[in-house]
């Protein structure tokens, strides 16, 4: 993985943290360098720990994979994850895809000037659907040619397999309640990483192999949770809570 110090053989630590107390609900070290395929897996495993589904699942734009987000959204859980465009605060231009109207009945797009883009084919691998202007001369004679497109064959639109889901989740992220949740995300989920790296002075793993690394990851997560619970409950309060859950076999 790439870091400020260079490229190293590494594991990617995933933490799922609860919003109310900031405790680590699930932690795992994975071998994938990117977070893009981790969202559904990590949320599902956290739900298994809690033995009930969460109400809201929130993550940063590195997890913005529509197929992954849909897996959790389909379970009735509110998903708050910005797209890359939203995270970078990129403003859409006057001729971006969002300004082209999709006609589901006729399976075509209509440009802002009222011209039709017909279905032209689908990529077998990505399943992306392509739409092309009916006549290239329409674009060439348009007052916006050169700004909307410079292509000789005229304007083209690519529709993603889950385009409607992507649009709905982007709109959901923009809601005021979602923005409040997302504003808390950094303080909640980055706190454990800061404590483990700075206070526990962990800048690498001692063991090799994924099972050993995950054992270390679990120990570090437990250490963080104990320190966090002492902050919340105090030492005596934590001991009382732990004693309430002790096994009869230990008495």
In short:
With about 250 residues, this protein is an alpha+beta fold. Helix content is about 40%, strand content about 20%. The two termini are about 50 Å apart.
Structure description:
The structure is a single chain. The protein is α+β, with helices and mostly antiparallel strands and 251 residues long. It folds into two domains: 2-88 and 169-245, Nucleotidyltransferase, domain 5; 97-161, no CATH class. The chain has eight helices and eleven strands. The protein has helices spanning 39-50, 66-73, 84-87, 136-140, 163-174, 176-199, 210-233, 235-244; strands spanning 2-3, 6-7, 12-17, 24-30, 56-58, 78-80, 101-103, 108-110, 116-122, 129-133, 156-159. The strands form four sheets. Strands 7-8-9-10-11 form a five-stranded antiparallel β-sheet. A two-stranded antiparallel ribbon has the order 1-2. The longest helix is centred in the last third of the chain and has 24 residues, at 176-199. The two termini are 48 Å apart. 20% of the residues are buried.
């Amino acid at each position: 993985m790439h870091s400020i110090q260079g490229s190293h053989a590494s594991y990617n630590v995933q933490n799922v943290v609860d919003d109310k107390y900031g405790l680590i609900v699930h932690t795992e070290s994975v071998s994938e360098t990117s977070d893009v395929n981790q969202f559904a897996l990590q949320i599902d495993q956290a739900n298994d720990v809690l033995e009930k589904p969460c109400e809201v699942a929130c993550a940063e734009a590195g997890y913005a994979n529509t197929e992954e987000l849909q897996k959790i959204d389909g379970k009735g859980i509110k998903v708050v994850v910005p797209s890359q465009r939203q995270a970078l605060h990129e403003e859409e231009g006057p001729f971006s895809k969002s300004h082209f109207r999709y006609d589901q009945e006729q399976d075509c797009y209509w440009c802002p000037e009222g011209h039709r883009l017909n279905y032209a084919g689908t990529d077998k691998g990505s399943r992306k659907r392509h739409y092309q202007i009916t006549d290239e001369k329409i674009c060439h004679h348009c007052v916006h040619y050169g700004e909307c497109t410079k292509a000789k064959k005229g304007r083209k639109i690519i529709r993603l397999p889950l385009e409607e889901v992507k649009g709905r989740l982007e709109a959901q992220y923009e809601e005021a309640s979602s923005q409040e949740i997302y504003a808390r995300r950094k303080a909640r989920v980055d706190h454990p990483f800061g404590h483990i790296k700075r206070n526990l002075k962990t800048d690498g793993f001692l063991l090799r192999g994924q099972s050993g690394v995950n054992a270390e990851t679990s120990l570090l997560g437990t250490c963080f949770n104990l320190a966090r619970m002492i902050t919340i409950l105090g030492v005596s309060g934590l001991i009382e809570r732990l004693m309430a859950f002790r096994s009869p076999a230990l008495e």
